[in-house]
Specification:
Elements: E1 2-3, E2 9-10, E3 18-23, H1 28-44, E4 54-59, H2 63-66, H3 71-82, H4 105-117, H5 119-134, H6 143-155, H7 162-171, H8 175-185, E5 195-197, E6 203-205, E7 209-214, E8 221-227, H9 231-240
Length: 241
């Protein structure tokens, strides 16, 4: 993050070969975006430079804008978006009601801490936490669950040092980074979750999806008017240039 002469924070674009992603861990649109981004990488194949584009995660904590996450909100979104991207593994919440993660700030801080080790580690933990919630109905609000998921990520071969991650959470080392992201997310520079930022500074909000709500939020459901998965091929190629 940088500031201009008017003291308004602006986005610092990533280096070539990197995509910034600003998102909330319980955002279903981000879950679709990341699934399609990974699928696009595989379609491109290792011979294409765009296959090697890395993600740099930043936090866009919706709970600090809208209040605590509501189960009825994510359940209705899971049903709506699961129809266009069933392979993403959407499930309605099947865990106990009192275990539903109304906050994911600790999990978001853990992703930033993992990303400080390496972008690969940050992406791996982020993906695992999303799967733990959307598919596994695990309460990623809890520090113990976050660290349990991190241990699973490390055991799966990702370059994540769980000891360093635990120390970072215990010390709050990356809490200031989280709040710096929040400061920027409160401006027009980052319009929504998910928002991608390209190395040339281009900002892409919720790429490939046009949606409207039928009924009030958390009582109605999202209707996807258009879905273009090829947008993620374009994103990767633009980031690789």
């Amino acid at each position: 993050m940088t500031t201009t002469d008017t003291d308004q924070p602006t986005v610092s674009p990533p280096p070539p070969g990197v995509l910034q992603l600003w998102s909330d861990l319980l955002c279903p649109f981000t879950h679709v975006a990341l699934h399609e981004l990974r699928a696009a990488r595989e379609r491109l194949g290792p011979g294409d430079p765009a296959h090697n584009v890395q993600l740099e995660h930043h936090a866009f904590p919706l709970e600090l804008f809208n209040g605590p996450h509501l189960r009825r909100g994510t359940d209705t979104e899971a049903v709506g978006l699961g129809q266009i991207c069933p392979a993403a593994g959407f499930r309605v919440w099947t865990g106990p009601d009192d275990s539903y993660p109304h906050t994911v700030l600790t999990a978001a801080e853990a992703v930033l801490a993992a990303g400080a080790q390496s972008r690969v580690a940050g992406e791996a933990l982020d993906a695992a936490l999303r799967a733990a919630f959307w598919t596994g109905a695990r309460s990623i609000a809890h520090r113990a669950v976050v660290l349990e998921v991190a241990e699973e990520v490390a055991a799966g071969g990702a370059p994540l040092d769980t000891g360093r991650l635990t120390q970072a959470l215990d010390s709050g080392r990356h809490r200031a980074d989280l709040m710096a992201d929040v400061t920027l997310a409160q401006t027009e520079a980052i319009p929504t979750s998910p928002t991608f930022v390209l190395p040339d500074g281009t900002v892409c909000a919720n790429p490939g999806i046009t949606v409207h709500w039928e009924g009030p939020w958390a009582a109605g459901y999202p209707i996807v008017d258009a879905f273009n998965a090829s947008a993620y091929i374009d994103l990767l190629r633009d980031a690789a240039r």
